[in-house]
Amino acid sequence: MKNKVLMGLAAVAMVAFLSSCGKVPQAKIDATNVAIDSAKVAEASVYVPAEFAAVQDSMKAITAAVEVQKSKMFKNFKKIEVKLDETIAAAKKVQADAVAKKAEIKKEVETLMTDIKAVIEDNGKLFKKAPRGKEGAQVLEQMKTEMAAIDAAVVEGQGMYDKGAYMDALNKVKAAKENADKINGELKDAIAKVSGKKVVKK
C-alpha cells in the first residue's frame, strides 16, 4: 500500500514536472519581442545592421523551435527559455550600441560639415587664381559645375541631418567632401604649374 502511494505521488510529481516544462514561455517571448522592437525603434538596422540581423535570426530560430515543441506530446521549453534569455540580453545590447553609434555618426557629420565648408571656401579662392588659358577655361567650367553639385549635396546633407537621418547625411557629405578635396588638389596643381613656369622664365 505504501509503495502504491509513493508511486502515485511520484507519478503526480512527474506529471507536474512535465507540465511545468511543457508550458510555452509566452511572457519571455513577449519580453524578447519588445526588446527587439525597441532596438528597431533605435534604428539598429541602420547603425548596427549585422548585430540587429543576428538578433532577428535568433528570434526566428526560437519561434521555429517553439512550434516544434508544441507539436510534441511531451513538451520541453527549458532550452528555449535559456535561448530567450540570451536573445533578450542581446537585443538590449544592440539597442544600446545603436544609440551610441548614432551619436557617433551625428558627431562625425558635424565635423565633416565644418571641414567641407572650409574646403569649398578654399576652392572658391583658388578658382579665382587658376590659369584661364584655352584648355584651362574648359577645365574650370567643368570644375564650376562640379562645385555647384557639391554645394547642392551639402545642402541636401544638411537637410538629412536636420531630419535625424545621420547615416544618410554622412554618406552624402562624405562623397561631396571627396569631390571637393579632388578639385582642391587639381586647382593647387594647376596654380603650381603656372607659378613654376613663371619662375623658370625669370
Short description:
The protein is mainly α and 202 residues long.
Describe the structure.
- This protein has 202 residues and is mostly helical.
- The protein folds into 2 domains: 2-100; 102-201.
- The chain is 89% helix and 0% strand.
- It contains 7 helices and no strands.
- It has helices spanning 2-21, 26-41, 44-47, 49-70, 78-129, 134-162, 166-201.
- Helix 2 packs antiparallel against helix 4 (49-70), helix 5 (78-129) packs parallel to helix 7 and helix 6 (134-162) runs antiparallel to helix 7 (166-201).
- The longest helix has 52 residues, at 78-129.
- The protein is rod-shaped and about 90 Å long.
- The relative contact order is 0.09.
Individual helix count: 7
Strand content: under 5%
Radius of gyration: 32 Å
Shape descriptor reads rod-shaped
How do the SSEs run, as a string of H and E?
HHHHHHH
Which structural class fits the helix and strand makeup? mainly alpha
Index terms:
mainly alpha; disordered C terminus; 7 helices
Topology:
Elements: H1 2-21, H2 26-41, H3 44-47, H4 49-70, H5 78-129, H6 134-162, H7 166-201
Helix pairs in contact: 2-4, 2-5, 4-5, 5-6, 5-7, 6-7
